[in-house]
């Protein structure tokens, strides 16, 4: 009976973390959609220099795919965390690994060099939050909160 009550009423901290994870990842989805078909003109209108815009326009497909898997995996994983399902961990792991691939891409493709410290800080924060969500899912699983 206790397990059933625990399943129906997840701990408040877990719901808060999952809710914040959802909000963060929905914001990431909005950011992702702005990267789909940028033009030099639209990027420069947003304040990028011609060199920065050129780097952003030439981002390879695999980096966009990594971004997509990261953000949509984060949304799905955070949603699954709300519902306390055991498949949460592999989904959040996939999201984290995708963000790590994007991080490597930002280094090798010159995004960090073009956009500077602010881009490094943003993507480092993204990776850290993805890792924290995965840790919460792992901890929740060990506490038998995911079933």
UniProtKB/TrEMBL annotation:
Keywords: Membrane, Transmembrane, Transmembrane helix. The chain crosses the membrane at residues 12-33, 53-75, 87-105, 111-137. The keyword Membrane applies. This is Uncharacterized protein.
